[in-house]
Amino acid sequence: MFENLDIALSVKNLNVRYGDALALEDITLDIPARQITAIIGPSGCGKSTFLRCFNRMNDLIPTARVDGEVLFYGQNIYDPKVNPVEVRRHIGMVFQKPNPFPKSIYENVAYGARINGYKGNMDELVERSLRAAALWDEVKDKLKQSALALSGGQQQRLCIARAIAVEPQVILMDEPASALDPIATLKIEELMQELKKYYTIVIVTHNMQQAARVSDYTAMMMLSKEGERSGTVIEYDKTNTIFTNPKDKRTEDYVTGRFG
Amino acid sequence: MLRKTFDIEMQQVKDEILVLGSMVEQALLDSVDALKKRDIKAAEKVFAEDQAINEKRFAIENNLITLIATQQPMARDLRLLASSLEIISELERMGDYAKGIANINIRMGDEPLLKPLIDVPRMAQKGVDMLHRALTAFVNEDAQTARTLPVEDDEVDALYNQVYRELMTFVIHDPKTIERANWLLWVAHNLERFADRVTNICERTVFIVTGEMKEIKATDDEFWKNQPK
Lengths: 260, 229
Hints:
The complex is a heterodimer. By secondary structure, chain A is α/β, with parallel strands linked by helices. Chain A has a single domain, classed as Rossmann fold (3-Layer(aba) Sandwich), CATH 3.40.50.300. Chain A has 10 helices and 10 strands. Chain A has a 6-stranded mixed β-sheet, with helices on both faces. Chain A has a 4-stranded antiparallel β-sheet with strand order 2-1-4-5, with helices on one face. Chain B is mainly alpha-helical. Chain B has a single domain (4-224), classed as Phosphate transport system protein phou homolog 2, domain 2 (Methane Monooxygenase Hydroxylase, Chain G, domain 1, Up-down Bundle). Chain B starts with a helix and ends in a 5-residue tail after the last helix. Chains A and B meet through helix 8 and helix 10 of A and helix 3 of B.
């Protein structure tokens, strides 16, 4: 299925519990490098929980327990010796609602790099990141202004620039365009096509057309059994296949809008 | 049931395709009947009514494009809509074969038929019968029928082969019949192509159901294997 692509992330027998409740059940799949992988599925099936496993964001939830392995280029990120902060430097995240810091545009982008003790030319890094996020031309004359004065779509691209500035290898996106209008959404989608030349992207989306438009691979998630709360991946294939000829009846029903 | 609106609209499109199919079936039978009776008026009517088939096809195509734009179909729904676009264009061209036969009839003017038509109406009947069942299979999304039906094209090919040889016998005996033989050969050729296109419709039905896009069988085999190299 991946032809000769490198594998960036490899999930093996992943289970997640919140307290006693099983949230994710036995997921095993590979995420190819420098491709866009979409995770789709009905509400409450664990898409975001799954995405958060890729950079140990679930560590921040006290009751969450993760079993199984997530290998990042062969290194298990859940190994006790691995520092989760280091993981998140390599595997960045963009959230549903744009969440810029209440600082200037410039400081938003520079923030992560400063914390990491970046020694290079900060002005260059900020410009490069803003250009990569297709925002530079719109903000180059007002870098000192507050990020909160930008439009929602600009704020989201600023968050992408902020994620890029620490030079990650993977960018996780949790519904990155769901709070944006259609034009801003298209800008994010176009941007993703540019970004995938350099970064591995995993996106959770409720918008199936968006998954069909932007992604190369699609994982379909679903509650594993009727009446239970634990989700799992029921089908994973090239996006073309998922949206034209899925193998699983439940995927078919979901993508044709007859379920979910 | 989600997608109720879409399902209703899609059913309407299927109904419209059946209407288009029956217009084409009628046109073909009428064109051959008019030829058999050398009824030029009837041929002119078939010729003129092809316009209605073309317009019907455009109307259905418009509905399909609107459905694609407004409903964003996926998976099987998408295959159904894309295949419907293909099928209506097959039907429109099958209508052109009827128009072509009517045209031959008109251009023959006062010339009598070279021979009474026996196998030519059989070819038409068989082609129409196949089309009818192919469209029923399409509407019912019945891949089983769609897979097996194209074999029957061999019967039409065999009839074509027979008509061809018969006409050649006339020409050999009396080369002055060549033009009249040629008219009828064109008619038979149109009917042979008509039946070939039924196979294309069947291939789409299989695609809708299985997602597999492939040729069911090479057409023209039966005819060509009987011809000298």
